[in-house]
Structures are given as structure tokens and as C-alpha cells.
Amino acid sequence: MWWDARPISRPRKTSIKKTIIYRLVVDPFALLITYVFTGELFGSIAAVLLIETFSTAFYYLLDRFM
Q1: What is the domain range of residue 27?
Q2: Which of 7-11, 47-51, 60-64 is predicted least confidently?
Q3: How many domains is the chain partitioned into structurally?
Q4: Would 16 be classed as within a structural domain?
Q5: Is 65 in contact with 5 (CB distance < 8 Å)?
Q6: Mean pLDDT value of segment 3-17
Q7: Residue 50 exposed, middle or buried by CB count within 10 Å (0-12, 13-18, 19+)
Q8: Which residues of 26-49 are buried (b: 16+ CB within 10 A; e: fewer)?
């Protein structure tokens, strides 16, 4: 059944390492781009946090149920 689906098989340590590298590279770049286009630092930070929260939750659900 779909609720018994196993997560994508990869070592947890590797997954955490990739997530940290991704966050260290992509988040500052996303913050810079949103700041350049909007000119608002607080709005840029809020936008990046909101997008990252959604993408993390979505990835978790996708990983869990597929």
C-alpha cells in the first residue's frame, strides 16, 4: 500500500550532508537574487525562509509516500 512506502534508500548521513551543502550554496544565492530584485532585506529573508520551508516539507512528503 502507498502508506507503507519506504523512503528513497540512501544513507542518512549522506542525505544530511547533501542538504547542508545545498542550503549553504543555494540559500545565500536565493537571498541575493530576491534582494536585488525587491530591494528589501526583510522581505527577501522571509521569502527564502518560506520557500525553503515549503520545499523541505514537500520533499519529505514526496520521499515518504513514493
Answers
A1: 11-65
A2: 7-11
A3: 1
A4: yes
A5: yes
A6: 66
A7: exposed
A8: eeeeebeebbeeeeeeeebeebbe
